[in-house]
Amino acid sequence: MQENGSSPRQLVQILAKTPAFSEKGAERFLEWLWKKSKEEREALLKEWTDFTAVGACEQCFYFSKDNLCRFCQNPERDKSTVCLTVSPFTIDIIEQNADFNGTYFALGEEASGHHNLKKIKIIQTRIEKLKDLITKNSVKELILATDFTSPGEATAQLIKEILAPSFPDLRISRLGRGFHSGDMISYGDPLTIKKALEGRE
Ligand SMILES: [Zn+2]
Questions:
Q1: Which pLDDT tens digit goes with each residue over 28-37?
Q2: Are 29 and 80 in the same domain?
Q3: Per-residue confidence (pLDDT) for residue 5, from 0 to 100
Q4: Residue 164: how many other CB atoms lie within 10 Å
Q5: Which of 21, 42, 148, 167 could cross-link with 25 by S-S, CB 3.0 to 4.6 Å?
Q6: Residues 122, 29: one domain?
Q7: Mind listing the pLDDT tens digit for each residue in 160-182?
Q8: Any idea what the CATH number is for the domain that residue 162 is in?
Q9: Ligand 1 centre and the CA of 63: distance in Å?
């Protein structure tokens, strides 16, 4: 008799290749999901399916199903102020917590001491796109919202060094008060994020 292979072993292996899971972690996650109701599992699957249609805004690299994201498309947004983050998820955090009406730019990768060529290529390509955006929208202020960790500080420094000579009139600021050395913006509480944006320097 032929045995049907219904163990999600293959799914465990796929998940274990992601940065989020070890093989044990993937097993635990699937076991947790397996115990949920059919409706809950289907709701999660629907989110996954929707996510497959999400790409990146061609201008700022925030999540978008269209060529331009909701921020870049919105005529009410102040296009002359741009807040730069590494991850598009940090854009969500700032948007939810700070009173900010400018637009955003997601760099995609952090600069670090390690010379990972793939990362360097992504950063270089994005910085070229950022330069185009600054020129196109006559950007007056760029707020660097990278983490306060050493890769985050190195990234902020790199952006400053590259952009300052080409755009002498551009104000390049950094999130201020509230965050300390080693802090990651995503873990900041709402008030800290709000104050840090207001107190940028
Ligand atoms: Zn955009």
A1: 999 999 999 9
A2: no
A3: 66
A4: 11
A5: 21
A6: no
A7: 999 999 999 999 999 876 777 87
A8: 3.40.1360.10
A9: 8
